[in-house]
Amino acid sequence: MISSSDKGKVILAGAGPGDADLITLKLKNRLGEADVIITDRLVNPSIVNEHARKDALIVFAGKQGYNDASATREKISALIIEHAQKGKKVLRLKGGDVAFFSNVLDELITCKQNNIPFEIIPGITAASGASAYAGIPLTARNHSQGVQWLTYNPNSNYTPERWKELACTSDTLVFYMAAKNICELTAHLLRYNESADTGIAVIEQATTIYQQVHISSLKSCTKDFADKNFGSPSLVIIGSVVKLHDEFNWFKTSNTGTIFQPL
Fold first, then answer.
1. Over 70: is that where the pLDDT of 68 sits?
2. What is the pTM for the complete model shown?
3. Using CA atoms, how far apart are residues 57 and 68, in angstroms rounded to an integer?
C-alpha cells in the first residue's frame, strides 16, 4: 500500500474564461511547479504554453458536453490517480472556475478516496468574464439585486413551480450550457408570465478576440436566434441588466463572425 507521504499532490485550478491575462498569480506559480498538467479544451492554450515547465507532461483531457469522443470523468480520474501515486505534482486545469459546473466533486472524491493531498485554486468564472467583457453588470441598482446561476438542456428536470419562480424573479438569470437550446429555454419562461420584453444576451467566446454578443428579448428570441449556431462556449444572460450592454459595451474586437473552436 502506498502511504500519503509517497504520493504527489493534486491542484484543481480554474484558468478563467479565455483571456490568458485573466489568471491568478497562484495559478501562474503552480503552472511553473507542476510535473503533469491535465487541461480541458476550454483552457486557452497560451496559458499552458507560456507558464508551464518545459519538461512538464501536458495531457489534453478534451472534456466536452454532447461529444461522446471526449474524455470521460472516469478516464480523467484514472489519470490523476496514476500520476499522483508516482509522486508527481498534478495540476488539473479547467476553464473558468472549478466550483461552477465543472464536475470538480468527482475529482475531489477521487483524491479523498485515494488519500491524495489536494489544493483548490479559484478562477474567474464564465459568468463574471462574459458579463464584464459585454458591459453587462450582473447586479445593478434599479435593475437587479441578485443573480441565479443555472444550466439548461432538454433533460433539465425543472418543475412547473421552478419555471414559474424563474419567470417571475427580478434576479438576473445566467445560464451555462444553454445556447444550443435557447429557443426552448425562452419558451419555458414566457409560458410562466416572464415579461416578453425582458432582455436576453448570448455571449460567444467571451473575453477572447472571437467574442460576439447577440442581444434580443424573450419575445424576439425565436425570430432572432432560430437559425443561429452559437459556438462553444457560449453563455446566456437574461434580465433587465441586458439593456446596459449598449451603453457600456467597452470590449471591441475585429472579429467579423469567425468562431474559434478550442481544443
1. no
2. 0.90
3. 25
